[in-house]
Amino acid sequence: MIAPIEQEIVELLKHGDKKAIALLYQHYADSLLGVISKVIADEDLAQDVLQESFIKVWKKAKSYDSSKAKLFTWLYRISYNTAIDKVRSVSNKESKEVQIEGSNVYTISAKGLDQDVMDIKKHLQSIDPKYQIVLNALFFEGMTQQEASDELEIPLGTIKSRLKIGLRELKKIYDPE
What we know:
Blueprint: H1 4-14, H2 19-39, H3 43-60, H4 71-96, H5 120-124, H6 129-140, H7 145-152, H8 156-174
Helix pairs in contact: 1-2, 2-3, 2-4, 3-4, 6-8, 7-8
């Protein structure tokens, strides 16, 4: 049997009522933060993941099926998976960071830089908006392709295609030959 508050939250979620998020936070935030904190030690990052989890819950609310899982179990899975994804994302970014101090690459003076290339955001505005959005998410917001897919609600294959085409369009601007 479903608890009355759980039933109320489910109904509010199904109808897109924003009161559902307040009730979810009030009744489940501490427990979910505990789940997330077991995966992520950093308190601030754990709080961010909790917020991301509630956003995912809101976006996926209509897909919740009470016959498959209790509300808390569904919330738990979303929060836990979001925490795991964040750990993977952070570790991927850290492993890809360039260590400037240990670099033996020579430095380029400002004279050696092409000023046209320095203005990439301006040129980005001249390509189709669907490519702009993907390039902006990946290069300026630091998202992985999977994160961009989730955030923009665009299939991963489409993200990859738009990245490739968007880069090709930018190349035409910088190298018109």
